[in-house]
Specification:
The chain is built from twelve helices and 17 strands. By secondary structure, the chain is α/β, with parallel strands linked by helices. The strands form two sheets. The chain has an eight-stranded parallel beta sheet with strand order 2-9-8-7-6-5-4-3. The chain has a six-stranded antiparallel β-barrel with strand order 10-11-14-13-12-15. α5 packs across α6 and α6 runs parallel beside α7. It comes from Novosphingobium album. InterPro entries: Ala_racemase_N, D-amino_acid_metab_enzyme, D-ser_dehydrat-like_dom, D-ser_dehydrat-like_sf, PLP-binding_barrel.
Length: about 400
């Protein structure tokens, strides 16, 4: 492209042919379809869907989920909670990460400012520290007690005597009990529909059992919150559950494709990249998207199909048979044929535009400041949606 042509391109609406690369591309139609799919499933179960916006981290994306105004959301950082409250008017927020006592005052001040912030904890110490801060600030978040449904991370087992002790500590410290919360993290390692349905039932049963134990002990337990993207899609029965949390479903990714929750046609985010070199003697094509653009997430490495650092597509988003990001340096991606694919390495000219589907949408998104939004199968960029970052 000549210098004159480059200057002319900059004065026109950006397209996939003119955007500087690497860039984070969001297919709005696919995202809308993914949202509608899970909303429909949850409506069928009669439960609230509280999206986890740790994946999108964008007011504009959140508005596609809530076109009629702010609704209940989940976040993974207090910075997210502050951003969505301040920029989007969201006030019903669950912070679904165990409470750091040093962040308790920051959380309490959000409540003082009118946000219904619900935090997560599973120890008496956290309950006491939150109560002390609440007494000082004059406002206090309500608290979920985290339940361990599969040994994946934190939380208490439903029959652990500590469950009642934590609830009692919350009551003694004047901290409202929001309910119980759990997350079937082990579901990300499954790929069989029956096993996923069983994981969903295990998640539901653990949360409901914990809620019943609390009620039997005399405590109110208004919210029974479960959720992961795999279990949300494969749940057969949500009796006793009041809400489901899920996040990556808005965009999906190659890990979710490997789990069996989506197809590659559902993956709404990709990285736009440019061919910058060729090494045919090594079976390589070089692009300008390395791990700084893709992240170092190798989530498909233990799945049936290993996509390296991402699945390579043409500029329209159609997968190129067998071609993956096999290696990643800081700013270089090395494309090669996946072992055993049986395909032929394509002869791509320098300057060819490609798109790469990510292993993990959350991790890849975190590398970027904004989404470049496309729709209706057009290469034209119709919107620029900023993302928030930080903790």
């Amino acid at each position: 492209m000549t210098q004159t042509a480059t200057l002319e391109a900059r004065t026109q609406a950006p397209t996939l042919a003119t955007l500087p690369t690497p860039a984070l591309i969001l297919d709005r139609d696919r995202m809308d379809r993914n949202i509608a799919r899970l909303k429909g499933l949850m409506d069928g179960h009669g439960v609230v869907l509280r999206p986890h916006l740790k994946t999108a981290k964008s007011i504009d994306a959140a508005r596609r989920f809530f076109p009629d105004g702010p609704g209940p959301i989940t976040v993974s950082t207090l910075a997210e909670a502050e951003y969505f409250a301040r920029e989007g008017g969201f006030t019903d927020i669950t912070y679904a990460v165990g409470l750091d006592p040093y962040k308790a005052e920051r959380a309490a001040r959000m409540v003082a400012d009118g946000v219904d912030l619900k935090i997560t904890l599973d120890t008496v110490e956290q309950a006491v520290s939150l109560g002390e801060v609440g007494a000082t600030v004059g406002a206090c978040p309500s608290a979920f007690i985290e339940i361990d449904c599969d040994g994946h991370r934190g939380g208490l087992l439903p029959d652990d005597p500590m469950l009642i002790r934590v609830a009692r500590a919350l009551a003694d410290c004047n901290v409202p009990l929001a309910g119980v919360l759990t997350h079937a993290g082990d579901s990300y390692g499954l790929n069989d529909p029956e096993a996923l349905a069983q994981a969903a039932e295990g998640e539901r049963a653990a949360a409901v059992a914990a809620a019943e134990a609390l009620r039997k002990a005399g405590f109110q337990c208004p919210i029974v919150s479960v959720g992961s993207t795999p279990t949300a899609h494969f749940a057969r029965n949500l009796d006793g559950v009041t809400e489901v949390r899920a996040g990556v479903f808005m965009f999906f990714d190659l890990v979710m494709n490997g789990v069996g929750v989506c197809t590659t046609d559902d993956i709404a985010v990709s990285i736009l990249t440019t061919v910058i070199g060729k090494k045919p003697e090594k079976g390589w094509i070089l692009v300008d998207a390395g791990w700084m653009a893709m992240s170092r997430d190798r989530g498909t490495a233990n799945q049936a199909v290993d996509y390296g650092y991402g699945l390579v597509c043409d500029v329209a988003g159609n997968p190129i048979p067998g071609l993956i990001v096999d290696q990643a340096n800081q700013e270089h991606g090395i494309l090669a044929l996946r072992k055993g694919s049986g395909e032929t390495l394509p002869d791509l000219a320098i300057g060819t535009r490609l798109r790469i589907m990510p292993n993990h949408a959350c991790a890849t998104g975190a590398q970027h400041e904004a989404y470049e939004v496309v729709a209706n199968g057009s290469p034209e960029v119709i919107a620029h949606w900023p993302r928030m970052r930080g903790w």
